[in-house]
Amino acid sequence: MDTPTPVLETEVLIVGAGPAGATAAALLATYGVRNVMLNKYAGVSNTPRAHITNQRGVEVLRDLGVEDQVIKQATPQHLMGEHVYATSLAGNELGRLRTWYTHPHFKAEHDLASPSSVCDLPQHILEPILVDAASSRGSSVRFNTELVTFTQDEDGVTALVRDRLTGQEYGIRSKYMIGADGGRSVVAEKLGLPLVGEMGTGGSINVVFEADLTRFVEHRPGDMYWLVQPGVGHDGNGIGVLRMVRPWTRWVGVWGYDESQGTPTFTEEDGIRVAHQLIGDDTVPVKVLSISTWAVNDVYATDNMRGRVICVGDAVHRHSPMNGLGSNTSMQDSYNLCWKLALVLRGQAAPSLVETYRDERAPVAKQIVQRATRSAHLMPPIFAALELPPAPDENTMREAIDRLSEPTAEAGRRRRTFDDALHATIMCFNTHGVETNQHYTSAAVVPDGTPEVPAPRDEEVYYFRTTRPGRHLPHVWVTRDQRRVSTFDLCGRGEFTLLTGIGGAAWRTAAEAVAARFGLPIRVHSIGRGCDYEDSYGDYRAASEVGEDGVLLARPDHMVGWRAASLPSDPEAALRTAVAKILGRETRDDMAGEG
């Protein structure tokens, strides 16, 4: 393109204002980084779309200081977990699951892993929280503005953008650009990022509607009800879904269709019909608010950046809604990236620090796409257990379900097969380990030389608490002035943190010297008897995996960057070496700023 004369200059240009882009804008603004965020639409999402916000997602929002807003507006965990399989909402139940970690066993695991709880926060409520945080902290948010194209050079990125109201095109010059423009990413396409997988593996229709369904659900509160009905899914078989948006008066009815037959045209009357069929009672008043279609994808990028242009969110991982990983992973992409950009732009880290985003987040994109796809494949065995023919009609499906209740040996075999298939779908929801066990290997993680200890249980299912470098700092409750404080709240907010114990006073002196050397704030907290924070429950001693004079170095994203089991002879030199490696400053004592 002809390089436009920039009308605006900023440090970071963010293309897209969904969960990934708005999180990036809010974080960068919080860190004092000038940024412009483009939203090609007139406002934030006007439909619920993504909704499950898991512990790691809420932790990002907690670190941003908006968790209180989330708690006020989200549906809490205890109203999410009664997952009902039935012929319709008013019809016969076929079974239930305790999902989203509401089973007492998983609830304990969930509560031990984080100070935050999973919740249901629809995207049209989440996005305003993030956009408001970004704009109120200094981000320049430009609605009705789309990216046309861009070029980059050694010093930055020049983007050509268009005002969709006036048609005016103008240039924006930035040091870095973040592509957060979703599943049809223009940025990823123009970068030529390598994608693995398949787009459009199935089609679905969302019917958003208002109806008071309290009498059907308040005694079995859940965020989704899966309804086995003919004709609601692909190839004539399927599960229709009633998804709660607001308890218990706003809903999304999800209806599948065969994409090979083209995208169907749905009227308001069709939407009412879908709602009534899923409810199982056509006397319930229904008000349709919107109807939209969406595709099920199975795609991830094996590389997520080129030079000074970095992609986050659905631009580099696109998958089914199974496990609720989409918006959460998108926010965490930005959480990983933005502190690195801030340090590089301040001249506190080498540009190579940004490159570690590729090494740390590309494997996560692959993992969550493959997990969501495996979860989606847990659905067909339910229908195989019913021994249904292809595309059964209503009578055939009803007869197959009725046969499950017959007092015969054959029916007993079918019941066992059906129940096993149904209960196996818990993995469509409860993959706590996938959410919490992300493990980074990159130049921004300094190994401590100890052999890796394998997790004792399945790492996709169960949280694995460890302080091994590259893992998430464990949450435990400590106390100060008799009040509980999470170790999570001792760290983050854009800064590095040292956690040490009773014998670790020398680490405080070391941190002051290293912070002065690199011009980098490093906060220090001691935990133990008589320290800054009391280890009142003894949980920190058990979780830290270092001695009382050892230390944990937490990065700004709460990942353990380095640890020392005990106090070395020269703690300043040990800490200096570790911080230098993370910052990419091993060979240079001083660096010129990025401007």
How helical, in percent, are the residues? 25-40%
The fraction of residues in strands falls at 15-25%
Structural class call reads: alpha+beta
Q: How many DSSP E strands?
A: 24
Mean pLDDT score:
94
Characterize the biggest β-sheet.
8 strands, mixed
Give the end-to-end Cα distance, rounded to a whole number of Å: 26 Å
Task: Give the gist of this structure.
The protein has 595 residues and is an alpha+beta fold. The radius of gyration is 26 Å and the shape is globular.
List the helices and strands and how they pair.
Elements: E1 6-15, H1 19-30, E2 35-39, E3 52-53, H2 55-63, H3 67-73, E4 82-86, E5 93-98, H4 104-113, E6 119-120, H5 123-136, E7 140-143, E8 145-152, E9 157-163, E10 169-179, H6 186-191, E11 195-210, H7 214-217, E12 224-228, E13 239-246, E14 250-257, H8 268-279, E15 287-301, E16 305-306, E17 309-311, E18 317-318, H9 326-345, H10 352-376, H11 380-385, H12 394-403, H13 409-424, H14 432-436, E19 477-480, E20 483-486, E21 496-500, H15 505-518, E22 522-526, H16 539-544, E23 551-554, E24 560-564, H17 571-583
Parallel strand pairs: 1-2, 1-10, 2-7, 4-12, 10-17, 21-22
Antiparallel strand pairs: 3-6, 4-5, 8-9, 9-10, 11-14, 11-15, 12-13, 13-14, 15-18, 16-17, 19-20, 21-23, 23-24
Helix pairs in contact: 1-5, 1-9, 2-9, 9-10, 15-17
